């Protein structure tokens, strides 16, 4: 058996933080990994008059998306996707979800059939009454075993090496151990669980809960209400996944970093919480706040709430998820935000 | 069957907040409760030149412990404990734990044998290798069925009627329904669970976790670390109760307001979190901070950590609870706080 060759597909804030860990571990575990280098695919753009790949490869810092953090020298930025994944046996998908489809179009047929993948992409793909996690989308398209990683992971904090945890939902135990080897450090604890769907869905659905928490903060209701909303949201997440996916494990929600801990982190800070709070306090529409506060990027939580609403409507199950429905109605149907807790 | 006669034993911040709910519900559910009045036992003291019972009975406000909140007129302050509980069939214990023993001495033999009780007292009684919840202490001493209530309940927020939840661990389902009738309002949701021990222990052990969260904030580690500590703490709470108590339900910790939600509230704000944060930032000993920040009152979390340490040492089980042990060692044994996350 040859050694594993890693490729990181995506180089934003989280992609750069995780590339740092991968670079360190590939050099450390030379029995498992090819230690020559960790290619990281970078969507080429100019930054301060220079190409971003050049900046990364010369300064070993992603000055645009993770400034101030030194990357190991074996992390090599590559602007060509096919070249970045050439011969790779361990693919790490870490990019905004809207770029995944195009990325898979390019990769289709060009990936080693014995490779395995892991996705760190947040979100789900909803088409009417169908819902798919990205691990399944990748696995189906490329024909390779795909796990998922999600947890209470603010990228900048992981990059600064403060104590953090995360959860890998693995497809096979062997895959799980490989991903743990690639990412775990003394201050970044990787827990393993046999539940790709649960871990993936936590990462998507927690953003709805974070929007609700932002509403509570905007209303000035206090910590009792906020904790209640987080608790109810966590249970709706669990309930949703148990209803619509097979073999989901309760622990992914109630005991793992992917569930309870990520809900906490997302509801304490994070963009979903902050923008939802501003929505209540500033009384401005979400598209205006997205422009102002997120540089025009979309606010994930309200879009996931809409996707989930469409899906639940098709399945005639809206009533079983009152908090998700409240977030949808407040965000998209002009329900007054003061109605949030009514009837929960 | 006669109607239930309620008595509230204790009139601090939480006692006054809960007396307000009881007063409202006794008037509302006249089929179940005697609606003439809700006696609340008040440890008599002078406040602003007047007796506290007189202030409460004239102004219908506990100006010392819950200022600014109107109490229903049927809540009547009584300075004599025996008189307050006379003929009562539903006793609500809500006082600092250090006053319970003396209170039980007075009540012993004077309580209706068909009465039932509920305790809202936080803490546990540890004597070497023995540990007891207060519901058991009350039940054994007075010979009456005793439930427990605990949840994400900052008293001032409950008093102001913002959306909150709580959990009643009941001794019998009938008792549970009675306590729900006494406390539940549209904005104060009472969940019932058949687990007196789990609910009681949550209320005691969460303070240790809140101290750990305060240490994290003092260290400036950020939200990933804080969420990780809260998650680990919640699991140690559950593990502890499952190891040392019979018939504890996992849900009390992972799904109920008593568990996950109260851990959240306590770690967001609350005195344990705040004083522990100051311990790190101001580098002053806890007894000095207790004097300065708590008016000389004891910080529950560090004392519970010590009780739990003594108990676990007797049982030779310290190693199974690394976070509890770290809180103990940092608080009482001069372990540097930066060691908090090491080896977790």
Biggest interface, chains and residues, is:
A-B, 38 and 39 residues
Q: What distance lies between the first and last C-alpha atoms of chain A, to the nearest angstrom?
A: 55 Å
Radius of gyration of chain A, in Å, reads: 20 Å
Number of helical regions of chain A: 15
- Category by helix and strand content of chain A: alpha/beta
Per the CATH scheme, the topology name of the largest domain in chain A is Rossmann fold
SSE sequence of chain A, one letter per element? EHEEEHEHEHEEEHEHEHEHHHHHHHH
Largest sheet of chain A: 8 strands, mixed
Please identify the oligomeric state: homodimer
CATH class of the largest domain in chain A: Alpha Beta
Mean pLDDT of chain A: 96
Q: What global shape of chain A is seen?
A: globular
Overall helicity of chain A: 40-55%
GO molecular function (chains A, B): glycerol-3-phosphate dehydrogenase (NAD+) activity; NAD binding; protein homodimerization activity
Catalytic activity (chains A, B): sn-glycerol 3-phosphate + NAD(+) = dihydroxyacetone phosphate + NADH + H(+)
Domain Glycerol-3-phosphate dehydrogenase NAD-dependent N-terminal (chains A, B): 5-173
Protein name (chains A, B): Glycerol-3-phosphate dehydrogenase [NAD(+)]
């Amino acid at each position: 058996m040859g050694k594993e060759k890693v490729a990181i597909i995506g180089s934003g804030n989280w992609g750069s933080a995780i590339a740092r860990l991968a670079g360190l571990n590939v050099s450390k575990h030379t029995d498992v990994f090819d230690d020559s280098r960790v290619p990281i695919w970078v969507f080429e753009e100019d930054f301060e008059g220079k190409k971003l790949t050049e900046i990364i490869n010369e300064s070993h810092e992603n000055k645009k998306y993770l400034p101030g953090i030194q990357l190991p020298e074996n992390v090599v930025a590559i602007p060509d996707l096919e070249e970045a994944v050439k011969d790779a046996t361990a693919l790490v998908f870490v990019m905004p979800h809207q770029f995944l489809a195009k990325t898979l179009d390019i990769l289709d047929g060009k990936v080693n059939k014995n490779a395995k993948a892991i996705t760190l992409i947040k979100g789900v793909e909803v088409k009417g009454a169908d819902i798919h996690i990205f691990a399944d989308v990748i696995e189906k398209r490329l024909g390779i075993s795909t796990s998922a990683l999600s947890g209470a992971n603010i990228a900048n904090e992981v990059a600064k090496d403060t104590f953090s945890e995360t959860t890998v939902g693995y497809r096979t135990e062997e895959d799980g151990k490989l991903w743990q080897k690639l990412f775990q450090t003394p201050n970044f604890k990787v827990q393993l669980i046999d539940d790709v769907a649960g871990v993936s869905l936590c990462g998507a659905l927690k953003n709805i809960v974070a929007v609700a928490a932002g509403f509570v903060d905007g209303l000035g209701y206090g910590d009792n209400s906020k904790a209640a909303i987080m608790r109810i949201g966590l249970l709706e997440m669990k309930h949703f996944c148990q209803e619509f996916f097979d073999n989901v494990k309760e622990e992914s929600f109630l005991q793992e970093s992917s569930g309870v801990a990520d809900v906490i982190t997302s509801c304490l800070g994070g963009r979903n919480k902050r923008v939802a709070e501003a929505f209540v306090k500033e009384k401005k529409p979400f598209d205006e706040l997205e422009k102002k506060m997120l540089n025009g990027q979309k606010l994930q939580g309200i879009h996931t709430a809409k996707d989930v609403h469409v899906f639940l409507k098709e399945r005639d199950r809206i009533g079983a998820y009152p908090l998700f429905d409240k977030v949808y109605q407040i965000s998209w149907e002009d329900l007054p935000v003061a109605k949030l807790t009514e009837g929960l």
